Amino acid sequence: MTETSQRPLRVLAAMSGGVDSAVAAARAAEAGHDVTGVHLALSANPQSFRTGARGCCTIEDSRDARRAADVIGIPFYVWDLAERFREDVVEDFVAEYEAGRTPNPCLRCNEKIKFAALLDKALALGFDAVCTGHYATVVTGADGNRELHRASDMAKDQSYVLGVLDERQLAHAMFPLGDTLTTKDEIRAEAERRGLAVAKKPDSHDICFIADGDTQGFLANRLGGKAEGDILDESGAKLGTHEGAFGFTIGQRKGLRIGHPAPDGKPRYVLDISPVNNTVTVGPVEALDVTALTAIKPRWCGTPPSGPGAYTAQLRAHGGETEVTAELTEDTLHVTFTEPVRGVAPGQAVVLYDGTRVVGSATIATTVRRERAAAS
After folding, report:
1. Closest by Cα among 69, 71, 18, 78 to 46
2. Is 258 helix (H, G, I), strand (E, B) or coil?
3. Does an H or E element contain 95, and which?
């Protein structure tokens, strides 16, 4: 569903309490749509979430969203999705780390909460579309199907975390900010012109359900009590100990607490995490070079690709693109990089692009490291 739809639509605007979602709702209303604002209560105890205008689901945020809806002149409701959020996002986050993987909770929230639970409820209530403040665009392809594309401004593009949306969901998605070639300062200036008090509110960048920003502390609280494990080098030699493999991510450099330096004096990075024997393997940065990967649970923004094809891939929410070839075999996506990339961790999402079009997203399961010459 494009933002320039000719007929007025019944639109449910997801309002996080931030400036982007407020401006998106205002633009949808200004375009003549029948807009209703909704704030998602994602915690049974919102006070446990971030405060100081840094989160997206605190009590402060719900009040900010309500005030914005009042200024825009649209009805406003708060919907309780706390239990669904706990099961689909928080518990998934903990389970992934426990299994030695590195999840993206914002991507999971978009998939399971904003464009599954929310959209399904909206459609059941007779709404035509869900509107959010994401920076991405939905266009109608030559075959009449909807396509997800990058935002006009690559600096603000958020299509990576939306790559989990299927064609049915895209048909009912509205992103009024996606084709805006403006800076964030200009979005804030627009909010101020509209009289929205969130114009100067800081953006949220951290995980909303970790109140103090201490991810390792949060995981230790949930997964604590495990026996301490070993930190090993590539040969299997013990370099030190840790208090839980869940406290590490692939590519991590800081906080390794290894008692003695590497023989070459260079920094060491986390190469592998093994929950089975509770070990963490570290090594030189070049050992992080990945040439290929397999990914599971693919979700396609339209028709799945057939046969091998050339694409670009994005591996992190704020990462760049890299050229790849990819092929889907049954339910497994096989991706080969034109040039080796670093810091690729199981649990992350790989999102494929054809130009600016998002082809789909899958969860990285395994990686293939580049072979290195033996030390002389």
Report:
1. 78
2. coil
3. helix 91-98
Quick check: is 57 catalytic?
no
Calpha distance 55→73 (Å, rounded): 25
Q: Is the pTM of this model over 0.85?
A: yes
Predicted confidence at residue 182, as pLDDT, reads 76
Inter-helix orientation angle 19-30/59-72, to 10°: 20
109 is catalytic: yes
What does the alpha-carbon distance between residue 62 and residue 64 come to, in Å, rounded to a whole number? 5
DSSP state, 249? -
Contacts of residue 372, Cβ cutoff 8 Å, sequence gap at least 6? 286, 287, 289
Which residue from 37, 103, 97 is spatially nearest to 71, judged by alpha carbons? Answer: 37
SS (H, E, C) 26-45: HHHHHCCCEEEEEEEECCCC
Residue 67 backbone phi and psi in degrees, to 5: -60, -40
Residues 317-345 have pLDDT tens digits of 888 999 999 999 989 999 999 999 998 99
Query: DSSP assignment, residue 1?
Result: -
Of residues 28, 25, 31, 61, the one with CA closest to residue 46: 61
Is the pLDDT at 50 greater than 50? The verdict is no
Choosing from 56, 57, 106, 208, the catalytic residue is: 208
What distance lies between CA 81 and its chain's CA centroid? 19
Which amino acid belongs to residue 10?
Answer: R
Indicate the pairing of strand 349-354 with strand 357-369. antiparallel
As a whole number of Å, the end-to-end CA separation of the chain is: 60
Helix (H) or strand (E) holding 69: helix 59-72
Is the pLDDT higher at 207 or at 286? 286
Q: Which of 56, 57, 106, 109 is catalytic?
A: 109
18: which 2 tokens?
């931030």
Coil vs helix vs strand at 183: coil
